[in-house]
Each structure stands twice: as structure tokens, then as C-alpha cells.
Design goal:
heterodimer, A: about 260 residues, alpha/beta, two-stranded antiparallel ribbon, 13 strands, B: about 325 residues, Rossmann fold, 2 domains, 8 helices, 18 strands, about 30% strand, elongated
Chain lengths: ~260, ~325
Amino acid sequence: MKVVVCVKQIPDPADPGALDPETRTLKRDVKLILDESDSYGVEMALQLVDAAGDGEVHLVSMAPNNERSGLSTALAMGAASATLVSDPELVGSDALTTAKILAAAIKEHSPDLVIAGSESSDGYTGTVPEQIAGVLDLPSVTAAKEVEVDGSSLKVKRQTDAGYDDVECSMPAVISVTAGVVEPRYPSFKGIMAAKSKPVDEKATADLGFAADQVGWDGSGQEIVDVVDAPAREAGEVIEDDGEAHLKIVEFLDNLKVL
Amino acid sequence: MTLDTIWVYAEANDGELSSTTQELLTKARDLADTVAVVYAGDGDDIAEAAGSFGAETVYATGDLDDALVGVPVAAAIAAAVDAGDGPDAVLLGTSYDGRDVAARLSVKLDRTVITNVVDVEVDDDTLVGTEPIFGGATNIKTKFTGEGPFICLVRPKSFEAEASDGDEADVEDLDVPDLGNAGGATVTSRFAEESDGPKLDEAGIVVSGGRGLGEADKFDMVVSLAKQLGGAAGASRAIVDSGWVPYSQQVGQTGKVVKPNVYIAAGISGATQHLVGMKGSKNIIAINKDPEAPIFGVADLGIVGDVHKVMPALIEALENR
């Protein structure tokens, strides 16, 4: 079974950086890491391939400056190879364009299954996996919390507001997984060393058949027209617990007449 | 300045519109002359409810035979647009199904989607969406530059819902074209998690727990306090990812947006991921042992202390009242 996992390399969420006032895009000059949301997809892909008994996991990532530190993490976890799409023309691409680019890179590998995180931890549009499915004209199940391959179809528990749905889906298919769906493994030392020699296929926009005006700011159907500070919330009273702080909470709730 | 027509993707339960759908319809009335809804199901079920929030028409797909709704609903809307019967804009709530429909529709129509919108306005003949970034510290305004229909995914609780006293909406069929290969996902059964008390995103009081609880069992304290206060229990992403609490209880950027009267954060540091989901609460109480925790920056009452001492004492004090 061949599984392609979409991985995003993002600035460390603990230090998310800033918006570039010129380009109005996230500053990406910091070192990028593997989006934790995607580590679940990588782990799930590795487990499914293991369970199938054969096959491999290929990664697809679109990132600025040929950044590959996040890819290296995923390769060290056990993925076999990767496609890295990087091109200055891609700056400003919207989610739909991103999906088209990723879909083109995925298509070259004719996978049985495509896995992505439900949403990235920086942009969190949450639409790219389903858009990839749309571009590839494949069925899809988003918000998967359990996935099992059963012959040529998938059995998925899909998160819902009320609980979950059991979903059956024909393959090839695209799924997006929720965080916490599996326990991502830590790369072993051996894995880290092996990752250094795994093939990473670098591609520019044109290699995937796109013209410059189809991607980036030109290809995106939106433009940022304003950036404003949101009204800040004022901090209130902060007290140190002296063993009686719970009474302060009771008083606070009492004053709100909610008790 | 208004658009001619907006369609709202309606989600409903037993004939009752979801609160997000009500919010979107309320806003859509300000933005367009004509408001209609798209519904995956029998249109008669929601015609009265949709009308009472100002929708003139329910475009209904009818029974979808348990297909996941993203593919068929998007295909049906796209077919209407291609036939020249489509709207100027489609508003959808940020929900599991809303996202699927919006994403599929964007591919079908080759139009961008503006996501995580918390406000939307008409500018000339296009729409401008406001989206919070960096945990809500900054808002960006994004304008559609191409042709419509404009597709907006709007976060729950962005607007106040207000009924319009409109008449029952007309019901029209929205034909679903042949879906081909993409229509291969079907729901075989549905499970609802048992929960008593109010729903997390509708509760007047929410008590949430985070990593500071130390271990999964301690989440029981959060549940007890929520129950005592007649509220709902929520959780930070950290403990949902750790498997202590189901994802349906997650409050944050990923997860539910809550705006209760009272929000009590127990052992939650206040990562931006969490703050964006709860900082619209009217009154916020935070208990955390780290005085530097960002949660104190938004709390009306902050207790620097050990949740394992403060929470049991609070629960006992409330019991004795």
C-alpha cells in the first residue's frame, strides 16, 4: 500500500513570529518545524503500511526556501521519501492554490491513500485536505479519529459534534486526521541517521505544470486589505492562594448571581 | 451597499437550526437583499425555522442516502451556479460538514474560500472578511478579488442571532448531479456520546481543565464543578491530544468557541490556541500555579495556586452552601 502524507513545516507555535508588514504574509525566515498536527498523519500512515504488510510512506510538503527540517523529522520517523515544492512564486498562495500544488505532487505517486492533518497549527484554514480530494476527484473523510484499511476500502470513525460517525469509503481516498488519533513515535537515532540519505525530490512551480500567474498572490482570489490590532482584554485581579482563595471565587460567582 | 443574494449552508437537528446557522442568517440579512438556505435533507423540515430567520427559500437536496455531505452539497450548489441560478455569496459555519462543503465547492467553482471569519462586510460588489490571527491579538481583513460566488467559512458565535419573524420559506429542490468517484464515502452508523447538562458551546458556565491537572483522573474535579454550577466541562488541546478527554470537549482555535457568562480555567496556561476559543467569555476565572501564565492576562479573577487544593476547596464550599 502506498500512502502519501501531506506535511506542513511551520514556525514553532511557541514563537509564532510576526506578519511581514510589506508582504502581509507570515514571516517564515525562522527555522521551521514539523507541524505537530501532521505528526499524527505520519504516524498513522506508518502504522497502516505496517498493518498492510507492504508499501511505503511518501511525504509531500510545500515550503519556502527549500526548508526541510520538518521533513527530516518525518523521514526520521520512518517515511521513505519526500517531495518538497519550493518556489518564491508561491508566496501568497491561498489554500486552494496550495491544494492544487500538493495535488499535482501527490498525483505523480498514484497513492492508495492520502493523509493530512485536519488543520495546520499556523494558518488553520482546515480546507486543504478536502480541496486536495476535490482536485484529485477522490472521495474523502475529514476529522478521522480511527482508520482501518479493509481490502480496497476504509473504515473510519469520523468526529462529529455529537460523537462520531462510522464511515466507509472507497480507495484511493483522502483522509484528514484529528490530533491525538495515534501516539506519534519519537525518531530514533538510527532513524535520524537514515533520514539523511532518504531521497527528497525538490520541485519548482513550473515542474508541476503551473505558470507563475496561477500561483502566489496572482493566483489567489483574495487580498489582505487591512491589518489591525484586536481590542485587548483587560486583565483583572490576580491573587495568590493563601488557602482561602476558593472563597474569593465563591464571592465572585455570588456577585454574578450564578449560584 | 448590499449583495443581491446570499445562500447560507444550514445545519439543523430535528427541524431546529443550529445556533451558527441562525447567526449566519441574521448577518446575511444585513448583507444581501435576498437570503436563502441550502439544506442537505428534506426542506420541509426546516422551512418554518429558516423563514423565521429571514430565509425566503430552502434549497433542499433531499435525502442523501447517508453520504457524507461535502461532495453532494457542493456539487449541487456548483450545478446551480453553472446554470446561472447561483448566489453572490455562500456563507457556511466552521463545522466538520461546513468545512467539507466549502472546500469542495471552492474546487468545483475554482474560487478561494476565506476561512475563520469573525466578521464580514460588503465593499462595493465584493465581500471583506475579518480573520483573527496570533490567537486573536491581530485581525486581518481579506477581500475577495475575483468573481463570485464568494465563499466564507464563519466561526461560530461571531454574530448575535436574531429572528426576523419572516414567513415560512418556500422549498425548492436542489438537484444533486452524478458524483462519480468522489461520492464514495458513506456513513454506516452514528454514535452520540452520552452527556448530561448543557452543551459546551451553549452553556452559561464552562469549567475547563488543562495540563496543570497533572493526570487524567483529575479531570473529574472539572466535571464535578461544572455539574455543581449547572455548566459544561471543557478542555485544553493539550489534554485532548493526550487522550484524557474526547475531542468534542476541546475549547480553542481547534475545537469549540465558547462565550459563556462565566469561564473557569483550571490548570490551563493559556496558549493562544486556547485563548482564541474562550476570550470572548464575559467573566473569566483562572487558577494556575504559574504567575506568569498568559491566562492571567485575560482573567477577571486570577488565582495563583495549586488546582489540586483550590478546586476541591471550591467544590466543598459550594456543596456546603
